[in-house]
Write a structure and sequence with these properties.
The complex is a heterodimer of chains A (about 800) and B (about 220). By secondary structure, chain A is mainly α. Chain A contains 36 helices and no strands. In chain A, helix 13 packs across helix 15 and helix 26 packs across helix 33. Chain A starts with a helix and ends with a helix. Chain B has a two-stranded antiparallel sheet with strand order 1-2. The chains are: A mainly alpha (about 800), B mainly alpha (about 220). Chain A: It is found in: Cell membrane.
Chain lengths: ~800, ~220
């Protein structure tokens, strides 16, 4: 026994080392690993006591107790191996675009299986029913549930459930019946498979698992409806499949099936499904409620999420109700509240860990799929397997066609033929089917045939459909949705439309999901949030987006300031020269950029991402975005730095630029002798935001948080209190906090004049300058009028007043600098 | 009774041609219309104001106003009605008809434009073809008015930022001394260009009488 174990480990080690070498250094030649094997011999099967001399009772210098660590050790190695494989594919990135990751994993598994088979090894027995259901499955479904795009899901919940429940039933029963019919044909020699077993098998292979399809859909950004239906279907279909599996499994063992059992089965189906949902909601709320109080124990905050979801899963399992349903609803329920409650770091941690566990679990399953394909003994029956493939394909296609015909009249946006094709073709079989079939009890006579058939259908769909779906989807040109809209206008108008629709629906006196959404939001805001969320002020999505943009704003200001600090010494001395040279100092640029980079990278990860638009099953949502933001920010900073130079140590005050239009109007009146870069600079940095802000996907949670950088900035600036006051009023009114500001703004207004003088400097940096100008135009009509009237008529008094006003109120404007100059 | 039935059916047929609703839908909407108007032939603002379900809608005023806006009647008139008849009511409703499978691309484009125009009109209260900052602010304020303790400042700031966004996306090379007066319809289309309207701004008008059924949620 021991010998056997160690042999297995040895092979595992060899394989592991082989792969780590292959993927780690890529250049190593295979012979090397054999050298690695020499490490193994110490793992001699001497039993727990591997003392050099057992008789002497001396203190052993070197001991080894392999059996003690064997299980976790092997698990670790397997996980590592699978993970290395994953790293491997991403070394050469283009592979994963054309060949789905699951295909690659299976291939690697096949290779490893081949190696193991050649040395007559057995794969690890991890795929026992218990291991799978208690440890491998929960992370996968938690991942899907937690990253489910909530809003589109609820907008399409009817269709999703329709396809998940009815579609799965349709497939199971259809395939099961047809296969049973096939079994009656003597030529195939499978007459011994009875109806129950056929149904059981059919329910196993009707679990779709379109990971590969989802990532393709995401890449080509197909329309939201199609995406969410495929996503939701795969999620709930797992639940339905598992329920069916358990039911048929039970039924398959019964000698006789009575009609009563059928009704009981149907009843049980609902009990299991709804019961799971109930537990999920219950635990979700408990979890949310718990996180209300975790603000003092941040370090274990993420733990609650996992423990509660797992608890929901286990309890559901305890009562033999749908545990998948439980964990999914638990994740869906708590996500919203929990993310409001926990700190940003915990939130990030939760997301990472959920993703990590889910993707490891799935990787392992696919990997084992490959291994097992080689190492198990197969019972190959051409007729049965080919007909399985055929029926799976036909029933899936038929099911989608028929079910869409039924659901389309109820959908606001019907599914087109192209969508239906995507839906039908996206029905890949995957991890769940494999695991389910592998955990079949041994008393099923033709278990091996089922395993073989399932593996065949998985390989067939994953490889053939998985690889071909991208070209096909692109070829038939499925309707696409642009998902990267994150501007205030879009948000405002989405809300506007929603409210309009809800209002019109009310007017028509009919209830649709907008009506229910309205009702739920009201209930949510009044009761749930109050109970579950610590800081329970309701937040409109517009405000959330706005705050997010504010935060970005603040960070940019911070960046600008830090740049200024490094440039500070030269500011005064260079001031006069600069106005003529108009060229920025290159050396500042480098260091500034670097410091900005530092600040940015320090700040980035703290920021909460509120909405995850669409997440790949294996990618954390925010990474690429963050990177993109960084890149874009850098280019834009670079641009904005170029013309202006750094000497203006100006803190851009957000409300400032609204004054500029007025300033423009004044330009003609004031000969541009007074040269100040200050405003160029500040407006530039400031006004470049709008273009960038839309890309900023990390919302701040509260305005106070968003303001933090600003306050820090004040100290940096040595700019005294008043500024803090300004900023801390909360929303820095872009234009117009009303009258009080008008004064200062009108004074600012004169500053832009210099820009006129340096058209090249401004113009040659195209986009930021453009933005810069646009910024001015948002001034209100009234304000503008006001300013215009004010200034020309009595310029001097106004300024006199303002001068002191401004210096006092807003030292950062460097009012003193221009003031003397004006004279 | 029978005579009036046929007459109303005839009348409905006209309306159906004009608005694209089916006869059942029109019948339903007519019932609702009469319920709202208290069996009068016309509907006044007062009637709509009294709908309890609408009371919590933050943009109730805009919605109600949209019904009395002549611009939403598919005719080139401006101004507003004091009272609307069933036909006008239907016309406004027809903006929200979902596309069918048979709708062609051009029709979809036209529908989209129509819906955008409807939204635009909700903003542009003074019919001058542009949304000024003041108008925009008003809408944003209303939108946010029900979500708790949001100060007016915030709403203002948001409207300002949004306006700035419009300006920067639409007129990137505006001369420095220009002033962005407001959003024209073209600009409005521009900023919402990427937004998929096909899945929004639709109501599934039911063919059956829903006042007695609450079945809206089961399907989406």
């Amino acid at each position: 026994m021991d010998l056997h174990i160690s042999r297995r480990t040895e092979v595992l080690l060899v394989v592991f080392i082989l792969f780590s070498l292959l993927y780690g250094s890529r250049g190593e030649i295979p012979p090397k690993p054999t050298g690695g094997v020499t490490i193994v011999p110490p793992v001699k099967p001497d039993g727990p006591q591997a003392f050099p001399d057992a008789e002497k009772a001396n203190l052993p210098v070197f001991t080894m107790d392999y059996p003690r660590i064997q299980i976790p050790f092997e698990i670790t190695l397997w996980v590592l191996l699978a993970s290395f494989a994953k790293i491997g594919f991403h070394v050469y990135h283009k592979i994963t675009i054309w060949v789905p990751e699951s295909c690659l994993l299976i291939s690697i598994g096949l290779i490893v299986g081949g190696i193991m088979h050649s040395v007559h090894e057995e794969p690890p027995a991890v795929l026992s029913s218990n291991v799978f259901f208690l440890y491998m499955l929960p992370p996968i479904v938690l991942d899907s549930g937690y990253f489910m795009p909530t809003r589109p899901f609820f907008e399409n919940i009817g269709t999703v459930l329709w396809f998940a429940v009815v579609g799965t039933l349709w497939n199971s029963i259809g395939i099961g019946m047809s296969l049973f019919a096939i079994c009656q044909i003597e030529a195939f020699e499978v007459q011994d498979i009875n109806l129950q077993e056929n149904l059981l098998f059919a329910s196993i292979i009707s679990a779709v698992d379109p990971v590969a399809v989802l990532s393709v859909f995401e890449d080509v950004s197909v329309n939201e409806q199609l995406y969410i239906v495929v996503f939701g279907e795969c999620l709930f279909n797992d639940a339905v499949t598992v329920v069916l599996y358990n039911m048929f499994n039970f039924v398959a063992e019964m000698p006789v099936v009575e009609p009563v059992d059928v009704f009981l089965g149907v009843a049980r189906f609902f009990v299991v499904g709804l019961g799971g949902m109930g537990f999920g909601i219950l635990f979700g709320f408990v979890a949310a409620f718990t996180t209300r109080f975790t603000s003092r124990v941040r370090e274990i905050e993420p733990l609650f999420i996992f423990m509660y979801s797992y608890l929901a899963y286990l309890v559901a399992e305890l009562f033999a109700i749908s545990s998948i349903m439980a964990i999914v609803t638990c994740a869906l329920t708590m996500k919203y509240y929990v993310e409001e409650n926990v700190s940003q770091r915990s939130c990030t941690t939760i997301r990472h860990v959920v993703k990590m566990l889910g993707s490891i679990s799935e990787t392992l399953i696919f990997f084992f799929l490959g291994v097992v394909t080689i190492t198990t003994e197969h019972e190959w029956n051409w007729g049965y397997i080919l007909f399985t493939l055929l029926f799976a394909f036909i029933w899936r296609g038929l099911g989608v066609l028929v079910l869409t015909q039924i659901i389309n009249p109820f959908r606001t946006i019907p599914f087109h033929l192209k969508d239906q094709f995507g839906l039908a073709y996206g029905g890949l079989r995957g991890a769940i089917s494999f695991a389910l079939v592998f955990t079949l009890p041994d008393n099923i006579g033709r278990k091996q045939l089922f395993v073989t058939a399932t593996i065949a259908i998985i390989l067939f769909t994953v490889f053939l459909q998985g690889i071909s779906i991208r070209p096909l989807i692109e070829y038939i040109n499925v309707r696409r949705t642009n998902r990267n809209l994150d501007t205030i206008n879009v948000e405002v108008h989405c809300r506007l439309m929603e409210h309009t629709i809800a209002g019109i629906e009310d007017l028509c006196g009919q209830w649709s999901h907008f009506y229910w959404k309205d009702k739920f939001m009201k209930f949510n805001n009044r009761i749930l949030r109050r109970i579950l969320i610590r800081d329970n002020r309701a937040e409109s999505s517009i405000v959330a987006l706005y705050k997010k943009l504010e935060l970005q704003n603040a960070m940019e200001i911070l960046d600008t300031v830090s740049g200024d600090i490094s440039a500070a010494p030269s500011i005064v001395s260079l001031y006069e020269e600069k106005k003529n040279s108009g060229k920025p100092k290159k050396k500042f640029l480098a260091s500034d950029l670097k410091s900005m980079h530092d600040i940015l990278s320090k700040n980035m990860y703290k920021i909460r991402q509120r909405t995850v638009a669409y997440t790949n099953k294996h990618a954390l949502p925010n990474d690429s975005q963050t990177k993109e933001i960084l890149i874009r920010r850098h280019t834009s900073i670079r641009r904005s730095l170029r013309p202006g130079s750094f000497q203006s140590s100006v803190v851009p005050k957000s409300h400032k630029y609204f004054s500029l239009p007025a300033g423009k109007s004044l330009e003609s009146k004031f000969p541009p002798t007074r040269l100040s870069y200050t405003d160029d600079q500040e407006t530039m940095s400031e006004v470049a935001y709008p273009s960038r802000r839309s890309r900023f996907h990390q919302p701040g949670r509260s305005s106070s948080r968003a303001m933090m950088p600003l306050q820090r900035l004040d100290t940096l600036k040595e700019a005294p209190s008043v500024d803090v006051l300004d900023e801390s009023t909360g929303e820095r009114g872009r234009m117009g906090h009303g009258m009080s500001r008008t004064n200062s703004s009108s004074s600012n207004a004169r500053i832009p004049a210099p820009r006129r003088q340096f058209p090249p400097s401004v113009d040659h940096d195209s986009s930021s300058a453009d933005n810069f100008r646009n910024g001015h135009h948002e001034a209100t009509a009234e304000e503008e009028e006001q300013q215009q009237q004010q200034q020309p008529s009595s310029p001097t008094p106004a300024w006199a007043a303002e001068t002191q006003d401004n210096t006092a109120q807003n030292p950062l404007l460097r009012r003193p600098q221009w003031n003397p100059k004006r004279k | 009774m029978g005579a009036s039935q046929t007459r109303s059916e005839h009348k409905y047929q006209d309306l159906a041609d004009k608005t694209g609703f089916s006869l059942e839908q029109i019948t339903n909407l007519h019932k609702r219309f009469q319920q709202l108007s208290g069996n009068e032939d016309t509907l006044s603002r007062q009637n709509l104001d009294n709908i309890p379900a609408l009371a919590n809608n933050p943009i109730r005023n805009q919605i109600i106003e949209a019904f009395f806006d002549k611009r939403n009647q598919h005719q080139d008139e401006v101004g507003s009605f004091n009272e609307i008849g069933f036909e006008q009511f239907l016309m406004v409703m027809s903006h929200f008809r979902p596309p069918t499978l048979k709708t062609t691309e051009e029709e979809k484009e036209a529908l989209r434009k129509e819906k955008l125009r409807f939204l635009f009109n909700m903003h542009d209260t003074d019919n001058d073809g542009t949304i000024t900052l003041v108008e925009y602010r008003k809408v944003v304020e209303e939108l946010l008015s029900k979500s708790g303790a949001i100060e007016q400042e915030t709403a203002k700031a948001i409207a300002d930022a949004a306006m700035l966004e419009v300006a920067s996306t639409n007129v990137p090379d505006m001369a420095p001394d220009d002033f962005y007066e407001g959003i024209t319809f073209e600009h409005f289309e521009q900023i919402l260009k990427g937004l998929e309207m096909e899945s929004r701004m639709h109501i599934r008008f039911l063919d059956v009488d829903t006042t007695t059924m609450r079945c809206g949620k089961s399907t989406s």
